[in-house]
Amino acid sequence: MPTDWEARYRNADAPWDKGAPHPALLRWLAMHPGRMTERVLVPGCGLGHDVRAIATAEPTSDVLGLDIAPSAIAAASRLDHPANAAFVVGDLFDLAPEHRGRFAWVWEHTCFCAIDPDGRDDYVRAVARSLLPGGHLLGVFYLDPYRGDHRPGGGPPHGCSLEELAMRFVQSGLFAIVESGVPSITYPERDGRERLMLMQRSRAMITDPPTR
Q1: pTM to 2 decimals?
Q2: Of 107, 123, 129, 155, which residue is most buried, by most CB within 10 angstroms?
């Protein structure tokens, strides 16, 4: 059964929210000042911690937080945020026309791992649609979220492998991997279980699989 994200936020049942930006994002922004500028999309932004971090670090950027859950967007909008940060209810897989091909950057954190693995090729195409040709996807991908009763197939979150990431993004012809490594800093319980990757959008045309 699909996750009811609105109900989860409405009931304050959001254990993925750590109350702060991802530490690897903060480190990356500090190490690459002036790089994540222009228009930036943060899909599945939740309460907007990463949105505010990017907008604060890069005041010339224009950062849009997108989430399917109205309660998340309402909560994010109520929190203090820079003038160059905005939040909107929306679906990455059904982007409004004004958001297609408009972004220089996409920041990924907990969106890819939240969707059903069967929808991951759709995610790759959706991110590519949002980006300008030559734009960049920077993301933390959760390789191994499984502990205790949370086993593969029981997500979200859903894990992945480096081989799958290469298959989904690179073999699609839509992205090239520029950098890839284990984040030097992350949340305590995620040490060694994530991958920080920078990818660049190719100029390939986006094609959808034929409908059946």
Answers
A1: 0.95
A2: 107
Burial class (CB within 10 angstroms; exposed 0-12, middle 13-18, buried 19+) of 8: middle
- For the chain, the average pLDDT equals 94
By three-state DSSP, how is residue 205 classified? Answer: coil
Q: Is residue 212 part of a domain?
A: no
Q: Is residue 207 part of a domain?
A: no
User: How many separate domains does the chain show?
Assistant: 1
- Cβ pair 113, 158 in contact under 8 A: yes
CA distance 162 to 164: 5
Predicted confidence (pLDDT) per residue in 48-81, tens digit: 999 999 999 999 999 999 999 999 999 999 999 9
CB atoms under 10 Å from CB of 205, counted, come to 8
pLDDT at site 154: 72
Arithmetic mean of pLDDT, 123-150: 91
For 112-126, how does the pLDDT look when each residue is reduced to its tens digit (9 = 90+)? 999 999 999 999 999
DSSP, residue by residue, 151-165: -TTS-SS----HHHH
CA-to-CA separations, 106 to 37, 38, 136, in angstroms, rounded: 11, 11, 6
Token pair belonging to 4: 């009811």
Strands 194-201 and 131-142 turn out to be antiparallel
- The average pLDDT across 41-47 equals 98
| Domain hosting residue 65, numbered range | 5-11+21-201
Neighbours of 182 (CB within 10 A): 13
